[in-house]
Amino acid sequence: MVATLTPDERVPMRPMEFDASLDDLPKHFARDGDIVGSHVLAVLSSVFPDGEDFFVRSVERVRDRITDPQLRVDVEGFVGQESMHGKEHRVLNERLADHGYPTRAIGKYILKTLEWRERIQSEKFNLAVTAALEHYTATLAETLLRNAEARDEIDHDGVRYLLMWHALEEAEHKAVAFDVYKAVGGTERMRQAAMFVVHLNFIFETGVWTIISVAKDRDARRHPLRMLRGLARMRESPFTSARTVRQLFQYHQRNFHPNDRDTRALIAEWRQELFGSEGELNELIAS
Ligand SMILES: [Fe+2]
Ligand SMILES: [Fe+2]
Description:
Blueprint: H1 7-10, H2 35-60, H3 69-98, H4 103-120, H5 123-146, H6 148-152, H7 157-172, H8 176-183, H9 188-215, H10 218-222, H11 224-236, H12 242-249, H13 264-275
Helix pairs in contact: 2-3, 2-4, 2-5, 2-9, 3-7, 3-8, 5-7, 5-8, 5-9, 7-13
Bound molecules: fe (ii) ion (2 copies).
Residues 82, 134, 137, 170, 173 line the site of one fe (ii) ion (FE2).
């Protein structure tokens, strides 16, 4: 259980190498070659590296002001985990770019808009945005870890493993940016405001980029029925279910804290499954 973990084990760094497992990545890697699902996953993966660099910068800017020794150790782990996620998603994004996905254009757009926001927003608001986006990743991570149907949506082992590892670590560090925001005096009002901005941006940006990504895909034009099936399936996906949306909106409750949702048993289960003595991902740990 988490209570018996040493401070370093709460948010552990795991150097990973997914290159080889992504070698045979097909163009449409979502379940049954689902075109829409593949593009949505590709857009999310494209956003991660520069998005996560922004999270790291937001936290690092105030790192010196954190006095709680446990939170300082957790921040160390957070920075290490997020940097590694960015590195491995860049590998996946390059493979996706080879298949024609606009992952580089999306990455460039995210980098430019975040740099612009950092120039005009306060340090604290950047942290509030980071904490809000971390709730998004924690919610998606929990859906993936709890729900076999969600995992079945990814039809390629390498991509599924990469997302499972990422999900486990998002669950492990889900409260770090939030606690840093609170530790530097972030208010409830700003926390809520930042989440509304994040909702609007997330829906708009992932929506528009998915449309652009699909529009560039010849197969999408050639197979309109497959497209329609994919769209219909989106509505039944565990990631867009009422339960997931409700969980997302829990962030708006007064005095919400990420650990209000107890995911310790879930984390323990997946640590064992992926990195235990017979862990499925032990072979992908970088030597
Ligand atoms: Fe991450
Ligand atoms: Fe994260």
